[in-house]
């Protein structure tokens, strides 16, 4: 199973991708890592006791153009537990592209329950295996509203580099 080191301005986070249970999500993430897409993007949304989100916004809260959305595979059996990494999306269950979030606690209400609009859930594709202390530190930063977005860190938290490690 592949791992990705997400280097940030607050420290490194290592996630283990679950290519067996989440092949679409893992492959999508690896594609963007190899492309260098995440470099220079923000962790732009932080809600303590819930999650930290990043992977699609540039400094100044500008969207970074992404590729085509992927199929939601939230019915893969993986759960939104503390340290799990899942795709952010719009109300459309199949709209995830690059934005992801790391759960700060068990968030079972985000799990798949059915294949209707309410039950699709948020597809987990990995788990933090090192650097959860960095994620917890992110959860403690001061946030504000900026350019129509809430829960934005006052001081930018940048992803400086992502590195793929294949086992």
TrEMBL record:
The keyword Isomerase applies. PROSITE patterns: CSA_PPIASE_1, CSA_PPIASE_2. It comes from the Bacteria. Its EC number is 5.2.1.8. One of its GO terms (molecular function) is peptidyl-prolyl cis-trans isomerase activity. PPIases accelerate the folding of proteins. It catalyzes the cis-trans isomerization of proline imidic peptide bonds in oligopeptides. PANTHER family: PEPTIDYL-PROLYL CIS-TRANS ISOMERASE CYP38, CHLOROPLASTIC. This is Peptidyl-prolyl cis-trans isomerase. It comes from Thiomicrorhabdus xiamenensis. The lineage of its organism: Bacteria, Pseudomonadati, Pseudomonadota, Gammaproteobacteria, Thiotrichales.
